[in-house]
Amino acid sequence: MNAIKLLPDLLISQISAGEVIGRPASALKELLENSVDAAATEITVQLFQGGIKLIRVADNGTGISRDDLPLALARHATSKINTLEDLQKIASLGFRGEALASIAAVSRLTLTSRGREEKHAWQIQTKDRHLSPPEPAALASGTTVEIHDLYFNIPARRKFLKTEATEYAHCDEIFKWIALSRADIGFTLQHNGTLRRHLRPADPRLRIAAILGDEFAQASVFVDERAADLRLWGASALPNYSRSSRNNQYFFVNGRFVRDKLIAHALREAYRDILHPDRHPAFALFLEMNADGVDVNVHPTKTEVKFHDSRALHQFIFHTINKALASPQLASVASVSPARDQEPRYGSRAVVAPFSTYAQQRIMPLAPQIMPDAASALPGMAAQSQAFYQTLFDTGTGSSIDSMATAIADKKQEVPPLGFALGQLLGIYILSQNDRGLLIVDMHAAHERILYEKLKLALDNHSLSMQPLLIPVTFQADSLDIATVEENSAVLCELGFEISVFSPTMLVVRAVPATLKDADVIKLAHDVISEIREFGASQALTGRRNELLSTMACHGAVRANRMLTIPEMNALLREMEATARSGQCNHGRPTWFEISLADLDKMFMRGR
């Protein structure tokens, strides 16, 4: 074997560059973080050929003095930490002192800076692997770093870079990270001499909208929650804005963009009840906490972190986002654009005002008043709400569409958010009118969500009541199902069922949850028994609890082709307004859409 020897400093820096500077975007990240740490208020980025040919970052920060310029390009030289205690509570973005040295080892670098006390700027360059002495230069303030020909001296590394367009896309993503994290700083991005982004200092909510787009802003709810030394704020998109990839997910810890499995799991759990399994949520969220509660020194790229109290943090994030998304005010609105397409196209956005226009940070309830809790079965719901409609409509005209429309026009200020039903479409959808336009409601999906939320609440409160059947229902079952019932009678009772063995091959159902009394008893019982049989009673009431309750709710929900009366439809709408997460069914699909009167006018070319 060869003798052990120390590696040259240049080779060490080039090896480090392989870890820290994987592509132009990585170098750009390090330079932007340095500019932010230097208290800059304006940062300008210029790129050529996706950053491969040139990366130039100029800021108006504190600058570097002449004597410190050579140290800025030395390995493990930094002004941001001095002791171990500093390392345990890092408040800056950069701190390792590796970035500039690594970049200089694999590029032609020019560093120009003017300290606050300097009469003029000074400049140093890397030439032929050597550092030039500081020379006078012209610069009003701050620091400018130019990186030319990245990986020019390591061809093997350079060949792994992608096309110019791909490398620029990665640089643009890094630019968005930093710009999102610091709305108080102005940012400019140019590529090949063309201005791509220009962001002035703004309110954080306006910065989020400027970077992620108005569609994201309109489809998001603003979050701001505090607990002990934790604060979580930002924008969390509604389920209808979900994406097929995780690209639109931005999470920052003390201003640092991070990718963390704990955080990702907490957010996924918060969306689980309202998001389709194949879709991913979108968000731009900012977590503020004590610096000593998080360890950012676990990876050279500094996008991975560790938390000291990960369990408490997980619960805080989960409950904050879950509460924000549970508001009954969050739902779906159709966006019809006949000018772009011949056929109406339906998108989605929040009914609530865009989060960037919120005057208050707390979510206000949607319904002006919550109707008394109606029975789960639609006929019962209709009976309990009949008095309400009789105060609004003349007796005997409740089912008249014409008189209902007239009454709504006369009492526009009293129209609830989901309006009043006009009728059914093909036995599947409820058509409703409010003071904004037309609503289309998937009655099965909406009723399913209502039942699901009621079952969850009742099970949590141990108040899931039984409804004895007038005539017990028997059905055939195999030996494993019979054994499951015998072994788990207490669990079935907790779920609101009274099921017992009738014979060696038969089971009998004597009671079902009162909320599901109109469901198909045999199918409902069979599915619940199958769930317990497959996953076990303990898992059915813990890890699989929501899936089990969702299955039960699906059985109890009103089916397609069920003809409802106008009072029954209106009762369903009122229940939706008072039910958390009613904008999506249990599987993450929307339960209703709204088409505004303005969109309808466009479709029919009114006013042209």
**How far do the termini sit from each other?**
86 Å
Sheet/helix structural class:
alpha+beta
Total of helices = 21
What is the oligomer described by this structure?
single chain
Per DSSP E runs of 2 or more residues, the count of β-strands stands at 23
| Overall mean pLDDT | 79
Q: What global shape is seen?
A: elongated
Largest sheet: 9 strands, mixed
Q: Helix fraction?
A: 25-40%
Give the low-confidence spans. Answer: 331-401
What is the beta-strand fraction? Answer: 15-25%
Please compute the radius of gyration using only Cα atoms.
31 Å
What does this structure look like?
- It is built from 21 helices and 23 strands.
- It has 608 residues and is an alpha+beta fold.
- The strands form 5 sheets. Strands 1, 2, 3, 4, 5, 6, 7, 8 and 9 form a 9-stranded mixed β-sheet that branches. It has a 5-stranded mixed β-sheet with strand order 10-11-14-12-13, sandwiched between helices.
- A hairpin with a 3-residue loop joins strand 17 and strand 18.
- The radius of gyration is 31 Å and the shape is elongated.
- The termini are far apart.
Q: How does the SSE layout of this entry go?
A:
Elements: H1 9-20, H2 24-37, E1 42-48, E2 54-59, H3 69-72, H4 84-87, H5 99-105, E3 108-114, E4 121-127, E5 130-131, E6 135-137, E7 142-148, H6 155-158, H7 164-181, E8 186-191, E9 194-199, H8 204-212, H9 214-218, E10 220-227, E11 230-237, E12 249-253, E13 256-257, H10 261-271, E14 283-288, E15 294-295, E16 306-307, H11 310-325, H12 378-392, H13 401-410, E17 420-425, E18 429-433, E19 437-442, H14 443-460, E20 466-476, H15 479-487, H16 489-494, E21 498-503, E22 506-513, H17 521-535, H18 537-541, H19 545-556, H20 566-577, E23 592-596, H21 597-603
Helix pairs in contact: 1-5, 2-7, 10-11, 12-20, 14-19, 14-20, 15-17, 17-19
